[in-house]
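Structure in, sequence out. Go:
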């Protein structure tokens, strides 16, 4: 239940920020409304790509650490 409430809260925050920024920039309620709807849709579509990118970065960092650790262990033997 808490996770659902948090998700709804995040979506509401994104929509509010998108509306406010576009309204301040243009003075148009219509453009503010469009931004409030389009922005969360774009986030939903792009978030999985963002997460995959960071998984790849994490895997590279971990691989470099493991290689560095292996090289250090070989030198001390």
């Amino acid at each position: 239940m808490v996770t659902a409430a948090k998700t709804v809260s995040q979506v509401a925050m994104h929509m509010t920020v998108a509306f406010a920024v576009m309204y301040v920039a243009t003075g148009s309620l219509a453009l503010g409304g469009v931004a409030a709807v389009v922005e969360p849709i774009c986030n939903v579509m792009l978030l999985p790509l963002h997460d995959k990118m960071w998984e790849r970065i994490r895997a590279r960092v971990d691989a470099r650490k493991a290689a560095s650790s292996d090289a250090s262990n070989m030198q001390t033997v």
